[in-house]
Amino acid sequence: MMDADEALELVKSGATLLLLDVPQYTLIGIDTQVFSVGPAFKGIKMIPPGVHFVFYSSSTRDGKEFSPITGFFIDAGYSQVVVRMWDQQEERLIKVPEEEEERYRQAVRSFEFDKHLGPYDLSLYADWKRLSNYITKSTIERLGFIEMDSCGCLRFQCSVVSHVFHVALLMFKPIGGEITVTYEHGMLKNTCKSAMERVLDEQLRNSKFSSPAEKHPKRGCYYTPIPRIIKRKGIESEQLTSLNLDKASTELLETLLVKDYGGSEESLLGELQFAFIAFLMGQSLEAFMQWKSLVSLLLGCTEANHSSCQSTVCKLEELNA
């Protein structure tokens, strides 16, 4: 049990997520924690600095049905105040003008909203760190979308939208890259899938919420393509067959690390965790496919013990421990 001084220090040093005008019964989540919005709820305080995943699902007035989940990553700084306001028409959280945002920040730092802010449960923070310890601001920027706002400034947002509780998917103009089941079946039409994945894909294709991927060219995340077949000039057919049977060979992993991850195994593991969270929290089939491809790649490295890739595979084992 922390005393008043410790709590005050955590409030001052931690980040704050100020959420204004959010309707009652809306589910608000951050990392592995979920809050049900009451009449006095205006956000979350004492958030440890670093990467976090914020997600939410609006509710009907009686709190019995919920909309699709929408989520976004933030990189919270020391004592930072992140402000979002509920747009009633679009039923989503939006940014507020900079001048207005600064006034809210000052109000938060003056403790005007303190009694309306729910505390981040620090006892659960270790669980989140195990899920996200390789995700950095660079990971989010690399996999997400950059857009120009009305002030001419670059802004990043990668949203995750999923269909849950069989509620109609709200169609709105996105302010950033999104993952949504309304078009994911089209993105995966040329991808080899397991029996379970084919069933899921068929359900998405036949869903009344589905629409072609071509209509949403700017949605989704920039996941790294994972080759399924290795092609090289001058290689013997027997060797080629062997390599393709072990498509996630050490050689392929080494090539990807250098070409796509700048030689950084942490970047690869960051993308692995990013995709897993997008799948786990946002129920994204595209994210699941990427996570599966990366895990298969790493687990298929039978020669990793004799290469620089050994530490990458060992770190994957640590993540699963």
From TrEMBL:
Annotated AAR2 C-terminal domain residues: 223-307
One GO BP: spliceosomal tri-snRNP complex assembly
Signal peptide annotation: none
All copies of domain AAR2 N-terminal, residue ranges: 14-143
Pfam families named among the record's database cross-references: AAR2 (PF05282), AAR2_1st (PF20981)
Superkingdom assignment: Eukaryota
Family: Belongs to the AAR2 family.
The protein's name: Protein AAR2 homolog
